[in-house]
Each structure stands twice: as C-alpha cells, then as structure tokens.
Write a structure and sequence with these properties.
Strand content: 25-35%
Radius of gyration: 20 Å
CATH superfamily of the largest domain: Medium-chain alcohol dehydrogenases, catalytic domain
Number of helices: 10
GO molecular function: acryloyl-CoA reductase (NADPH) activity
Helix content: 25-40%
Organism: Pseudomonas moorei
InterPro entries: Acrylyl-CoA_reductase_AcuI, ADH-like_C, ADH-like_N, ER, GroES-like_sf, NAD(P)-bd_dom_sf, Zn-ADH-like_protein
Protein name: Putative quinone oxidoreductase, YhdH/YhfP family
CATH architecture of the largest domain: Alpha-Beta Complex
Distance between the termini: 15 Å
Order of helices and strands: EEEHEEEEHEHEHEHEHEHEHHEHE
Structural class: alpha/beta
CATH topology of the largest domain: Quinone Oxidoreductase, Chain A, domain 1
Length: 327
Amino acid sequence: MFQGILIEKDDSGYRAALQQIDDNQLPEGNVTVRVDYSTLNFKDGLAITGSSPVVRKFPMVPGIDLAGTVEVSEHPDYKVGDKVLLNGWGVGEGHWGGLAQKARLNGDWLIPLPKAFTAAQAMAIGTAGYTAMLCILALEHNGVTPEQGEILVTGANGGVGSFAIALLSKLGYRVVASTGRVSEHDYLKQLGASEIIDRATLSEPGKPLAKERWAAVIDSVGSHTLANACASTKANGTVAACGLAQGMDFPASVAPFILRGVTLAGINSVTQPKAKRVQAWDRLARDLDFALLPLISHEIGLSEAIEAAPRLLAGQLRGRVVVDVNR
C-alpha cells in the first residue's frame, strides 16, 4: 500500500482525495518508481479541482512531474536504485502520475536524473523550467542573440515565466517581464528582469501590426497577449508559444509573419524525444542559477496539495509548488 491522491468520477460526482492505494492498482508499465518529489502544476490544479476536463480516464493519480528511485525495472536503460526524472507524456491525464508515493511507467518516458540536481531541485524546476529551456533552445535555433534587443516574457510570475527570466538574464539578455501583479515587481527584479510592464498593455484586442520592440518573446499566456506580442516583435524575430493562461484562441493576423518575417515557434513539452529532453536538462544544469530556486519555489506535503490546487488556479501562488509525497 502507498499514499496518493486519487481522482474518481462516478454517479456520486467528481472528487479528489488523499488515500491508501494498493500496489495492485498501479497501471501497466515496465518501470516502477518510488517517488520522492512531485509538483503542483496548472494542469494538476485543473485535474484536482475538475474545473477543466484534462483527466481522460478514471480513477487517476494527477501529477505531470516526478523524480524518484527505480524500485522495479524491466527496461534495459534502468536498474533498481537508479535516480530518474519524468516530465509530461500524458502522465496525470491518461496515465497515473506523480502525486503519490509510487508510480509505474513506461521507461521510455524517463530520463536519468542529472547528477547536478537533487530530486527536490529537479522538481523545483519541473515541467515549468524544462519548458522555459525548450523555449530558449527554440530562440537560439532561430539565431536570437542578446545583441538583438529586448526579450519579452509574458505570464512572468508563473513557473515558466519565472524560469525564463532567470535563464535569459544569466545568458545575457535584457528581459522585460509582463505581469498583472504590482506586488511582485521586486521578485521579478531579483530573477533578473530589467523592466516590468503591466499585462493590460498586451491582454486587450490590438492592431495587426504594432511598433517593433521585441527581438523575441516567450509567451505562456496565449489569446490577445500572444497576438499583441507577435504584432510588436521586430523583423525576423521569434515568438515561442508554450501556454494558454489567457485562452486557447489566437485572434491575430498574418501581418507579422508575412510583412516582418516573424517566426511563431510552438513549444510542446509533453512528447519531446529523449535526446531533446536530455539536452534541455543538461542546459538547465549549466545555465540556471541554483541559488534562485528557493525564491522561485516552495515546498508542501502531499496532504496539502488538494487544498493548494484552487489557490494555484486563482493565481494566488507564486512560481513553483514542489510536493514532498512522503509527508
């Protein structure tokens, strides 16, 4: 038996509860992991509260990230005792995830935990930091350099935004952070933001083309914010889109793309091939200032995760929420 959050949906309704789970209930997989830490992401908040239909089968253990130790393995790349890491692959949506003390998984979804990180540090970074690095890799692939000008980061107080600011700043970029929370300006400055703008300047309907300002953009917001970011990106700049906090719609025109040669790079963090995942985590080990992790993240116990989920969705929690599944 092990403890985990189990989401169930039946004639009695939709509910998430912390409970004892029998090992025999674990889904199919060729690697069983004793989980040390998981996280509470936006998608996990949606799953736990049931406010959006992200869970595709029931019962379900949420948690799109996990780090832990291999307990049983039938996969050639992993042996008992190996430290491993997982982000994405539909875990917590269609396959039991990390918000439990055990997980049984497809070993192809795992990567070795980089030696630079403890399990807790890896989860402080989690899908958010990993996605931010995928965005930066996309900008670099398109030739974006610090000399070209300012980089806009939207959704700056969220996990992706926080890590994007920290990473870009350390890499020498001048970062402009977009946020609706005036109270977080000091936090964003500590991460490395050179300037902070009000998200309201981007979140309303705008023109097909606006004055050129951004050499590149990392956007986790979508909707009008993404459209306006594209409209004000410099000629041949790149916009990396990785989220939909404002909405899934994209009320834009083709003008930035055909008149300025702007590239819109979609970032899918869920099903990246292993080599790309390893590359992103190797870069995180090299380019992230580990001293910022306590600023960006805070830790809760598994018993606190259900209560924290609606607060996360309401934007009341800053940065990353790390979950110690053993307390």
